[in-house]
Every structure is written in structure tokens, then in C-alpha cells.
Amino acid sequence: MKEIDIPIEASVGQSRTNPLARVFDELVRFCRSRSMFMLHYCTGCGAIELPPAMTSRFDMERLGIQPMVTPRQADILLITGYVSIKTLKRVILTYEQMGSPKYVIGICSCTVNGGMYWQSYATAKQLDQYLPVDLYIAGCMPRPEAVLEGMRKLMDRIRSDEADGWKDYYRRYDWYLGNQQHLFGDDWQTPADVIGEASHYDLAGPGTEGEHTRLLQQCQKPLEPQQTFFQIGGSLEKKGEFHE
Amino acid sequence: MSIQTLLMELVLMPLVAFVVGLFMVLMLRRIGAKLQRRVGPPMMQPLYDIVKLYSKKTQISHGWMHDIGIIMAVGGYVAAETLLPVPGMDGIADKGGLVTLVYMMMVPSLGLALGVGQCANPNGSIGIARALTSMLAYDVPFVIVVFGVAWYFGTTNLVDIIAIQQAGGVAGWGAITMPLLAIAGLFALQGMLGKQPFEIYIAPAEIATGPMVEMSGKYLGGLFVMQCFQLYTAGVLYVSLFLGGGENWLFFLIKVFAVVAIPMTVAFLFPRYKTEQMIRLMWKWPVMIGLLGLAFVMH
Questions:
Q1: Closest in A56, A62, A100 to B56, CB measured
Q2: Is the domain of A45 the same as that of A93?
Q3: By the CB < 8 Å criterion, does B116 face chain A?
Q4: Could you tell me the pTM of the whole model?
Q5: A83-84/A65-67 β-pairing
Q6: What pLDDT is attached to residue A209?
Q7: What is the rounded average pLDDT for all residues in chain A?
Q8: What is the Cα–Cα distance from A188 to A88, expressed in whole angstroms?
Q9: Which of A62, A65, A69 to mutate to test the interface with B (most CBs of B within 10 A)?
Q10: Which domain holds residue A49?
Q11: CB nearest to B215's CB, from A72, A101, A197
Q12: Residue A10 lies in a domain
């Protein structure tokens, strides 16, 4: 993973008065590392290595890793392979709906540098420009052993509180948003209010807001419920304008 | 009974239920793993999951009905635990009785329906509609079974029902004296615990776990706690009605764990039924067996 210059901030205003706070933090970190719910966004061929990693041959559940089906319930977002620009939008939407702490794992070479899709015009080359990737598992494709080894590495990093990519996304949201806007256009927006979340949970940093977030606020359209269409007698009728 | 003892029992009974429920969840996951020739989760995995979910940093709430729904879901079962006699502790079981208990066991589903309704996720709405419909399906044989047992023992007081069974020894157990009702009860138990073939309302691959689709962090943690209570309540109720309750904690726990293991062991044999197939099946076979058993009991 590319070294990113992250300004280290001293934790001010967070004086822990409880004498057991340290023990409690340790317990929470341990439980977080031993219970990881995984949302596998199977974008590419790397997904083929997940069934053996999950089922009886390698059995991820003995490490406390279970597959989950919605982003709300998940802790890990597993991106298994190349992300086309169209897919990347969905990946970002999914990521922003997950509850923090959340971790992103990029599996296969394609997430690292585009891999064999390097010359493709429709593929996002480096995933960590758009999402904070905590761990890459390189290979084309990595074997289940490598996937499990990567998971163990992530467990260690969660245990020692180093896996804080999710904080980075809040602190440097402007940079990530800028890269996203570069790909998707200036009117790119997601339903999640990342800036609001960052300020509510006291996670905002100097890079949370900037020129790109100002652009977002200018272009932002209010969210409206999707129009429902009924298929009646072979013709699509809009709800509300429906008549016999 | 002094007020201090009563208060202590009211606190202890849900706590015991939670701890036993944690091990039941572990047992279910281990059984699933063994049937699929896997190692399965470690001993404390259910606890890790719950601590992790409660320690999530960001919580996504969809409004206060969403919050209250989860409280109702857990609270309904906490109330139900105090009505379930366990060895050495009766709580308010002899004042509440069977009918109150059955009523309390429906509160969680309704609470969940309220909470999920506010999430406005179509998968959640479909899921909870299916869950309430399946509740309608398994409650008919369940009520027949409860009525039959109450008729046979001539009381709706669970403490008395257990005492009568224990006085008769193993031959006095409900499962021996009312075998048809016991079989119908097992059917209802399978539906109540939402195990295959009756898990259409969870259906992870189709409707993304249905009612749980918008639950994250503490909300999902609440549902995990609820699952512990649910397994415990269903198991203990079945043991109290048909297997003579608990003479002591050892036999009591063996019986309860054995009863809860049945649905999970059966579950992996089946795919799932559609909702209307489930209703047809539930209102046909267990109801028929239950009514036949009722006829024998009332003769």
C-alpha cells in the first residue's frame, strides 16, 4: 500500500476518567477482531476463491468471519477483483452505508493497480484513491490460504488499533471525494451525509471539507423517492397518473 | 416469598436465560458446522458478536419507532422469562400462567414489525409481512397444543403443570401421556424458531435477511440478544409442557438443549417452503395431529 502522509493528531478533549477504560477498550478491540461480518462485493474473478475459504476446506467461521448480506450489518467490505467505473459507484454507495468501524479489503492485483485491465478505459485502477483500503491481498488470484492469511493480518491490525482506514475517510473526505468527482463528474453525490456523520461523531479533520465538498454542496440535489411504475397490460403507467 | 427474593429472581431469570441462550446459539452454529464438516466457531463467538455489535461507533437510526421496536422485541422476551419456571426459581410464573406467557411471546414479533416498518426498506417490509404471516401459521397448532396440555392437567399454571408431571415420574411426562400433542408441538417449534423449511422470512439470498436488513450496530446486537432469549424461551416452554420441567439444573439443561437441537438438526435436510405452502402445511398436518391429540385428551 502506498504511504500516505496522514497528519497525526493528539487526542485532545478525550480525557478518560474511568480507571477501567483501558481494559474496556482492549476488550472491544479483541471482540472486533474476533467477530468480523463480511460483505463480499464480488466484482471479479477473485470471488471464485471465496467459497473454498468459507466452506469446509478452510472454514472462515472458526476465525469468527461470517458472510452477511447487507452493508448495514457488515464490518468488512471485500472487493474481489477489478472495479469498473460503473461498479465503483455502487461500491462507494455500499461503503458509505456501512456502520463504522468498517474495513475494506482489496483482493487480487486488479484492485492494487488495475492488473490486466491496466489499459482499460472503463476500469478504476487504484482502489485506494476512492476508498480507504485497509489491506490488499495481491495475486491473480490469491489462493484461499492467502485470503485467510490476509484476514489474520487484518485481525492483528484491528487488535492493535492500526486498521483505521474508516477514520481516514472521514478526515480526508475532500481528497477521496475529489478523486470520485474526477471519475464520475461534478454532480456525483451519495445519499449518505459523510460530513454530517464526521462532525456528529467527532471524527472530522482538517481535510474533511474543502473545494470538492463545496462543489458537492453546490451540485447537490435533494433526495426524492423513486417513482413507482406498474406494469399493467403491457404498458408502463406512472403511479399517480394512473387511470382506467 | 419475600419481596427481596422475588426481585432477585426477576433479575436472575432473564440473566440466566441470556447466558444459556448464548450457549444455545453456539450449539446451533456448531451443529450446522459439523453437518457441513467444518470446525465451527469458537466457544465465545456469540458473545464476541454481541460485544462487537454494541461497540460499533456509528449507529444508523431510522427514527424513534425503529429504536422502540428493538426494545419491544427484547423486552417481550425478558418479560416472558420471568413467567417461565426454572429449577429453584418460579418468579411470577404462578401468577402469570400459560396464557400470559403465550401472549408475551407474540410481543417481540409485533415490536419488530413496528421497528422494521419505519426503516422503509422494501426487503424489510416483505420480510416482516412474511414473518407475521408465518406467525399466523404456527400459532394455530401452538395454541391447540397449549390448550390441550392445559385441559389435560386441568390448570394453566405452569408451576402446577410441572409439579403434576414430576409427581408421575417419566411415565407422567406430557410427551408420554399426550404423544400426538407433543409431535404437533415440535412442528410449531420448528416454525417458531424460524428454521428451515420455515425460514422464508429470513431468506438471505433473496430478500437480504428480511426484517434485519436495515439493522446495524446496536440494533442488530439487540436482535442477537433476542435470538438468545427466543431459543431459550421456546426450549424451556416445550420442556415444561412435555418433558416434566426440571428436577435439577443438570437434567433441565440437558432436556432444554436436546429440544433446541432438534429443529437445527432437521433444518439442514430441507430447502424452504413458500409462505402459502407453509400456511397450508402448518394448518393441515400439525393442526390435524393436534386436534386428534386433543380428542384423545378430552375423549
A1: A100
A2: yes
A3: no
A4: 0.87
A5: unpaired
A6: 84
A7: 82
A8: 12
A9: A69
A10: 21-163
A11: A72
A12: no
